[in-house]
Amino acid sequence: MSETTTGGGRRVSRRTLLIGGSAAGLGAGVAAYAARDELARMWWRLPGIDKPRKAGAVDQPGVEWIAASGANWRWADRPDDYAIDRVVIHVVQGSFDDAVRVFKDPGHRAAAHYVVRRDGHIAQMVRELDVAFHAGNRSYNERSIGIEHEGFVSEPSSFTDAMYRASARLTASICERYDIPRDREHIVGHVEVPGTDHTDPGRHWDWDRYIPLVRAVRVARTAK
């Protein structure tokens, strides 16, 4: 991104100039602050600025890309516009194919970033930089990555060793990318999202097994 040098010698990015110049014309006080905050989140949608995106690219090495319907998520520039500090664990109440089908359906109006199958296979359906409609809470959608799991909350056999281990590797990688602590405050179940009416992942999801698996994964840190 291009930069301009101010009279004091400090280098100012084009993004800063665009945001600052736009906010200055919106008045003082709370309204100006709110407008500046919104512009800070939306700068990359301004004319002449394109967010780099590659069709079919995945954030997690080795996963399959299957695109969710654009009606089930919204474009963003996370973590620059919304800091990511949570991973939300879901159980679909159905099969892997069921999850993929409904997340591709524009009428469903919901999707998670990832879907994990019983055998450990993972599909990514929404880019991590974008906001997936998975938590039933706008703030949590904006701040979290959602991981859906094949299975039923009432069936302990849904949660296989392969699923736990694959999901734990994925969660550990997400935590490493965004400096998220690997603990139960930051890795939560859908049922723990404020205002939700969901019960997943349910009492049979073994947190005492899952969190140690997440902590045990060693991930090479890469730039995000």
Automatic annotation (TrEMBL):
InterPro entries: Amidase/PGRP_sf, Amidase_domain, NAMLAA_amidase_2, TAT_signal. It comes from the Bacteria. Residues 73-202 form the N-acetylmuramoyl-L-alanine amidase domain. The chain crosses the membrane at residues 16-35. It catalyses: Hydrolyzes the link between N-acetylmuramoyl residues and L-amino acid residues in certain cell-wall glycopeptides. Its EC number is 3.5.1.28. Keywords: Cell wall biogenesis/degradation, Hydrolase, Membrane, Transmembrane, Transmembrane helix. SMART domains: Ami_2. PANTHER family: N-ACETYLMURAMOYL-L-ALANINE AMIDASE AMID (PTHR30417:SF1). This is N-acetylmuramoyl-L-alanine amidase.
